[in-house]
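Still learning. Any example?
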Amino acid sequence: MYALIDCNNFYASCERVFQPQYNGKPIVVLSNNDGCVISRSDEAKKLGIPMGAPEFKCRELLKQHNAIVFSSNYPLYGDLSERVMKILEYYCPSIEVYSIDEAFLNFNGMQIDNFNDYGIQIKERVQKWISIPTSIGFAPSKALAKVANKIARKFPEHTKGVYVIDTDEKRIKALKWTKVEDIWGIGFRLSKKMKARNILTALDFVQAYNEAFIKKEMGITGLRLKYELEGKSVIDIDEPKNKKSIAITRSFKQDITDILELKERISTFAMVCGEKLRKQKSCCYNIIVYLRKDKYQDSQYNFYKMETLPFATNSGITISNTAIKMLNEIYQKGSIYKKAGVIVTQIIPEDKKQFHLFEEENPKHQLLMKIMDDFQKKTGERKIKLANQNLKATWIMKQNHLSKKYTTDINEILCVKC
């Protein structure tokens, strides 16, 4: 048996953890630079605020209903997510963290007498310890657990946030209720093709006469999904894997034309790429610099340049120096730049690195990187930086509605007056 645990309206729920006065009130969380709505409380959904809507388009509606608006506070969300996952590990050691607010649990080999009661225990523990509401779906396969989770979320008054698909009767009823566009892995384009074929529900999707069509359109992935919806588990829990590429890209708070400002951003992105490589104990060969100009100024507005190093590296200094060199080559004076990024690819494990006879990195880099990583791990802040970086801020973004970092910054922790 598998379970899918989904944190309800996760970002909005995280904001309520330390500000319970907003319980029952409409809340929205905005994306980087306060651009679009990326999380809504149930109350905000009822107002008709669509997911992904630009903030300026729904500003009046938000004001009209006194909705609370937050800038995205990823350090807080990441920390609370990690705490939720730790609780889930206590209930089941086989866990796949599917996203920041979702996790699959695999109960195969465990003796659970009543999954519904077990789910309610998990839900209550997360609510009591972290104050994050969750929905939990149990089923014999991961795709069916997704369906069960949607039912638990959709009908909380009947399910109490937990639903178990443990009989064929329940499975068929759930598949009949699930629209084809809501099936895990079916996107907008695929759902249009399915509907044109008169496949309107998950129950239509699993019919034998549709198997050839599914195989033609989705290949083996579609067949596996069909088997999963039939209750046959063919998609196992994914073990954590190292990323094959790492990209750090951001839109700027305001337009940039000065190359020195661009160098500061590129260096910062390169240093973060180095951090992520070292965290997963990897090195990279390829470094790509990305720039985006104002698309209304020029028809060609995306620019990339890549360089392959003679040796693998995870040093932020090497990545930054290489990226700055490429930036100098693609920068156009007088142009307005909106976004930039650094991407590293051809990633190999750190212990598989081959040393070069004639060209090698300065060995002092590794010691310096270790000191920087240790300091950041201890303080939670990026205080040691390259000289061309902004020493006061890493992510320079528009965050006019940012809440405090209640759990990741000792200076912003809650004070209790006794």
Q: What stands out?
A: DSSP finds 14 helices and twelve strands in the chain. Residues 259-279 form the longest helix (21 residues).
